[in-house]
Amino acid sequence: MRIYTDEIINAICLNMADRRGVNPTDVEVQLSWEEEYGFTAEVWVNGRSQYIIEANILEAIEQYIYKQYQIRVFRSGITLDADEEFWADIAVE
């Protein structure tokens, strides 16, 4: 299974909205990849900025796949990658 940028962003928005007790529409996300830090995302909630690391992104994807597709996956089975856009390859058993 593979999901792309939009679904990864949706996963992070839903995860952060749940954590902060806000609506998913109140969350903005910008994904990035850097040689030094790997995959990160800058997240804005109610005008406040926060950076999350790859482990947080994987957690959001894991929860998203379970809630949206009713498929239980594990972080160890999720691989992030990017070229012109971001995607996540997800091992489904």
TrEMBL record:
It comes from the Bacteria. This is DUF2653 family protein.
